[in-house]
Design brief:
Keywords: Pyridoxal phosphate. This protein has about 475 residues and is of the alpha/beta class. The chain folds into two domains: about 200 residues, Aspartate Aminotransferase, domain 1; about 270 residues, Aspartate Aminotransferase, domain 2 (3-Layer(aba) Sandwich), CATH 3.40.640. About 40% of the residues lie in helices and about 15% in strands. It contains 15 helices and 16 strands. Strand 11 and strand 12 form a beta hairpin. The longest helix has 20 residues.
Length: about 475
């Protein structure tokens, strides 16, 4: 038995089954991995097999980054207490966070998790607006607390969920590939505006029904919903409509913040410098695996919360160890220029994936920005029928090839890649090479039956340029611009 194990894998599995709630998700349930250590973009099992980690967006600057480990261990050996005592780490962390945000986002509340952050954001919004109703997006997930399950269709519309509460309004997910307004159906139209108008209609209907909008909450790029890239002009218009209705706008950056998109620190900034939410929530990558998260808002909203008269206290939120680690993560991101790295490697990964799409008709769409990438699998490109079973098989096969990926989206047919930010060009090439081999296996066994007169066959033979091929041309142009800069 490896010295990093306390017991053999079989005993670990038996104890988990006996003492851990069965509803707790386990990756690769039929043949779970026992991970005993990790470093950079790699995880190692009890047999010292090395797995390339393409899904662990929590280990943001790489598993067990030495600077982060040192910051945490040094502070833990010195002091760990609550934030009702003065401590430099807390105020330095708040200053760093607010310094990465556009004005007027300058007041921070430190908490332990993304779920706590989103719950507190809801409290801030209600204290400020004195309203109650919330607008959320279809397929959204914002956390595991009761208040957040209520605004997460990803949960309340699925087994065990109790459906939508009366005070929750669900807007269509701004998915231009599979959503209500698809790019193929509305070519050359402003789909961001079309999707935003759905929120405008919700605000109008709520007012007519005598209801008042407290907040609009959305991930800046929807993750569990299927790696959705929000169309331009969406948030610009949505924020305008929500504010006109008396609500505030919450940007959930728990999955995509801290430079994952490469071009900016926060994904909402991809929509333009003039697109600024009223409240931003961050978590997961902030602590590189250590529990720390935050809410950043305006002085005005923070003042409204204070004026309720209710003291806010979080025993562990903002403790010196959490803040030391968060400060180290931000320092590493800047020192190692990981945002620029995410742009370069992400563009390379996207380009390779889109080239792969010209070879494999199982790939319906490739989308992403920085190191936030989704590959949507379909049984037929015309009907866009989700290839759910194929996606699950591919995930298992990739694991057998020592690459860890997962799937999401309402049909669980979108392969999602959100690796640690230290993921390299060579890693990207290796993932695509193995994915190519696995896709070939899936398409050849059983043999892919394509009618010789079908639109798919004609497109493949006649040099038809798919949406992914068009994206490749754009990627190549961007790659040339980056290489010259």
């Amino acid at each position: 038995m490896d010295s990093l194990e306390q017991m053999p894998k079989g005993d670990t599995m038996r104890l988990r089954k006996r003492h851990i709630g069965e509803s707790c998700k386990l990756f690769y349930r039929a043949d779970p991995l026992k991970i005993v250590r990790a470093e950079g973009q790699y995880m190692f099992d009890e047999k010292n097999n090395r797995y390339l980690d393409c899904i662990n967006n929590v280990a943001h600057v790489g598993h067990c980054h030495p600077d982060v480990v040192k910051a945490g261990s040094d502070q833990l050996a010195l002091l760990n207490t609550n934030n009702r005592f003065l401590h430099d780490n807390l105020v330095v962390c708040a200053k760093k966070l607010s310094g990465l945000m556009p004005e007027p986002l300058s007041v921070c509340f430190l908490v332990n998790s993304g779920s706590e952050a989103n719950d507190l954001a809801m409290r801030l919004a209600r204290a400020h607006t004195k309203n109650h109703d919330v607008i959320t997006l279809d397929h959204a997930y914002h956390g595991h607390l009761t208040t957040l399950i209520d605004i997460s269709p990803y949960k309340f519309n699925h087994p065990g969920g109790s459906g939508k509460p009366e005070w929750v309004h669900v807007a269509p997910c701004p998915d231009v590939y599979r959503g209500k307004f698809r790019d193929v159906d509305y070519p050359n139209q402003d789909l961001g505006k079309k999707y935003a108008d759905e929120v405008k209609n919700i605000c109008k209907k709520a007012r007519e029904d005598g209801r008042s909008i407290c907040a609009f909450i959305a991930e800046s790029l929807q993750s569990c919903g299927g790696q959705i890239i929000t169309p331009p002009n969406y948030f610009r218009n949505v924020y305008k409509y929500v504010r006109e209705a008396g609500g505030v706008c919450i940007a959930d950056e728990v999955q995509v913040g801290f430079g994952r998109v490469g071009k900016a620190w926060w994904a909402f900034q991809l929509q333009g410098d003039d697109v600024i939410p009223d409240i931003v929530t961050v978590g997961k990558p902030m602590g590189n695996g250590y529990p720390v998260a935050a809410v950043i808002t305006t002085p005005e909203i923070a003042r409204s919360f204070r004026n309720t008269g209710m003291e806010y206290f979080n025993t562990y939120g903002g403790n010196p160890v959490s803040c030391a680690i968060a400060n180290a993560v931000i320092d590493v991101l800047e020192k190692e220029k990981l945002r620029d790295h995410a742009t370069r490697v992400g563009n390379h990964l996207l380009n390779l994936a889109r080239q792969l799409a010209t070879k494999h008709i199982l790939i319906g769409d490739v989308r992403g920005v920085g190191l936030f990438v989704g590959i949507e699998l379909v049984k037929d490109r015309e009907s866009r029928t989700p290839a759910t079973a194929e996606a699950q098989h591919i995930i298992t096969r990739m694991k057998e090839e020592f690459i860890l990926i997962s799937s999401d989206g309402p049909d669980r047919n979108v392969l999602k890649l959100k690796p640690p930010m230290v993921f390299t060009h060579e890693d990207a090439e290796h993932v695509i090479k193995i994915l190519d081999e696995v896709l070939t296996e899936v398409e050849d066994e059983p043999p892919r039956k394509i009618n010789t007169n079908s639109p798919e066959r004609r497109k493949l033979e006649d040099g038809y340029m798919s949406c992914n091929e068009k994206k490749i041309r754009i990627d190549d142009q961007q790659k040339e611009i980056i290489s010259k800069s």
